[in-house]
Amino acid sequence: MSDLRLAVFDMDGTLMDSQDFIVRAMEGAFSAFDLPSPGRPAILSIVGLSLYEAVARLIPDHPEDLIARVAEAYKACFIAQRAESGGEASAPLYPGAKDALEALFARQDVTLGVATGKARRGLDHACAAHDLDRFFTTRQTADHHPSKPHPSMVLSCLSETGVDPSRAVMIGDTTFDIEMGRAAGVRTLGVTWGYHAANDLKAAGADLLVDGFADVPAALDDLWGRTG
């Protein structure tokens, strides 16, 4: 068994605040089919799910073919935004995110991963735009796994790094992240600056909550140090 400790980060709402791009793309996709906008809170509530599952939750009573077409329209709207404004390059990292990653990356006993509802193309854009490529040993995306909260992404992170679940933590801002981590048998750290409320993260079973990135390394050490 590896002695490494693993920290798996969600991207949207945890490391990067891309809510404006997500909301505009979803509103554009709904408008393309003359569907009323779900509204910003509803759109942010599904961030982290795979795209088809996200749209299905926003229009649950509509046929599958329409859900699929709206999902494709979302992709087109997002790509158009990326071409127009730089997309992920214009979406800021949360304050302290880069410093926390640097501190963890510098430790020989820690390895880092990402488990995100983004497609691989979107994750690659985000990592390139914010110089994050060097940090992550393992990267899992929605186009290669079932939607969160299925544990597949975290299980793949564990498999690729050789880290035991007892030495791994999933860090995220949504209940989907917390539920995914719990389903994979790892501890979970909820961040309160993202898209789901702190009370919801706690109800989903988050082991700890933090209010800022400065608290993340110490919270991880706390969780890694727990037994049983």
Describe this structure in words.
By secondary structure, this protein is α/β, with parallel strands linked by helices. The protein has two domains: 5-17 and 92-225, HAD superfamily/HAD-like (Rossmann fold, 3-Layer(aba) Sandwich); 19-89, DNA polymerase, domain 1. Helices cover 46% and strands 13% of the residues. The protein has ten helices and six strands. It has helices at residues 19-32, 40-45, 51-58, 64-85, 97-105, 120-129, 152-161, 175-183, 198-204, 216-225; strands spanning 5-9, 110-115, 136-140, 168-172, 187-191, 208-210. The chain has a six-stranded parallel sheet, with helices on both faces. The mean pLDDT is 94.
The succession of helices and strands, N to C, reads EHHHHHEHEHEHEHEH
Provide the low-confidence segments as ranges: none
Instruction: Specify Rg, calculated over alpha carbons.
Output: 17 Å
**Anisotropy-based shape:** globular
Helix segment tally: 10
Side by side, the strands of the main sheet go 3-2-1-4-5-6
**CATH level-two architecture of the largest domain:** 3-Layer(aba) Sandwich
Percent of sequence in beta strands: 5-15%
Whole-number count of domains: 2
